[in-house]
Amino acid sequence: MQIQKNVPLAPLTTLGVGGKAHYFAEVRTEAEAGEALSWASEHDLPLFVLGGGSNVVVADRGFPGLVLKVAIGGVEAGRENGNRLFWVGAGNPWDPFVSQTVAEDLAGLVLLSGIPGTVGGTPIQNVGAYGAEVAAAIRTVRVLDRRAGHVVEMPAAACSFGYRRSIFNAEEKGRYLVLAVCYSLPKDGKPDLRYPDLLAFFSKNDAPPSLQEIRQAVLCIRRSKAMVIAADEEDSRSVGSFFKNPILESAAFAELCRRAEKRGLIPPSYPTSDGKYKVPAAWLVENAGFPKGFQRASVGISRRHALAIVNRGGATAAEVLAFMGEIEDAVDLLFAVRLKPEPVFVGFESCGTPALPTLRRIGQKKGSTLS
After folding, report:
1. Looking at residue 56, which CATH number applies to its domain?
2. Which residue in 238, 241, 269, 302 is the catalytic one?
């Protein structure tokens, strides 16, 4: 393991803003990950774990501690109760793994095609798209518990998965380092094609689409919204969806409808299983005065997707946050809904994430469980 100093972080993110990491290490094994965490603890440094850089906003002043890039690779396949199991290293790019499962005629992850980033980030954010969430396919998450000082395997039930949340970014944020994820995919699984864009895409089909056709449709739709990272596509210089879709109680939804009606609008909504209403954040953003293609200096709204804040070139993190706040305030003022951002904000705190105790042991074999 090599510790580097003053490494620029902007090139390692899809948004392309931010300063330098005071210290930086890329780890390729569990043992190296343990060494890096121990080093950060011994030097009393805050720690940030960087995956594919697709869902982060780095402060202009950078990060004052250790940025740890997890590059643990490998895919181990197996079977359990008729399902296919895949143990995948946290550093593996996500979409090539999804492509592998689709090639094996497994449907469990096909709707999550084209999402940038690495495998290690999927359980943290409970990555989702087109009506699917990765939590439905996760069996186990292998983590290094910084508090206990050893490796454990957490079953999905222990991960507190919810909409864009998990134990890893909520109750125990900063405690666990994701090393690998085990996905369980049924051989006869069927994707739920209920998302409007997908229904429209296949509306003229006489026969049910194949998994490969569904994957290509998802990729096509994402490209049309600049949600597939491409060097020559300015509108993909973003974190993807910047705001979460609000889930509103009945009273809050009624107030939204009342305010929207005054403006001659009807907000789209989707009822949830617990009697609430999910409202598209993109609709709120556009109808608060920020249409596709809107620009404010070096930042703006994607020309393809109203939920993406983009770096038009040379933007600073301060500009991104100011623009974010402007949108939040406008939506709140007009519709009484406070949007919540999706990305992780790095280096904005005065002292970062405190280092946890030095690890006592690492690298034990799969099988240590946390129930």
Report:
1. 3.30.43.10
2. 241
Sign of CA dihedral 229, 47, 60, 28: negative
Residue 171 domain-assigned (yes or no): yes
Residues 6+ positions from 53 with CB-CB distance below 8 Å: 9, 12, 13, 14, 117
State the pTM of this model.
Answer: 0.84
* Dist. CA 201–CA 369, nearest whole Å: 43
Of 26, 213, 233, 342, catalytic? 342
| Nearest partner of 278 among 306, 243, 253, judged by Cα | 253
Active site residue 171: no
Cβ burial, residue 342 (10 Å; 0-12/13-18/19+): middle
| Mean pLDDT taken over the chain | 91
109 domain-assigned: yes
- 164 catalytic? Reply is yes
Catalytic residue among 28, 35, 139, 164: 164
| Strands 299-301 vs 295-296: parallel, antiparallel or unpaired | antiparallel
350 is catalytic: no
Mean pLDDT along residues 296-320: 95
What tokens appear for 340 in the block?
């919540």
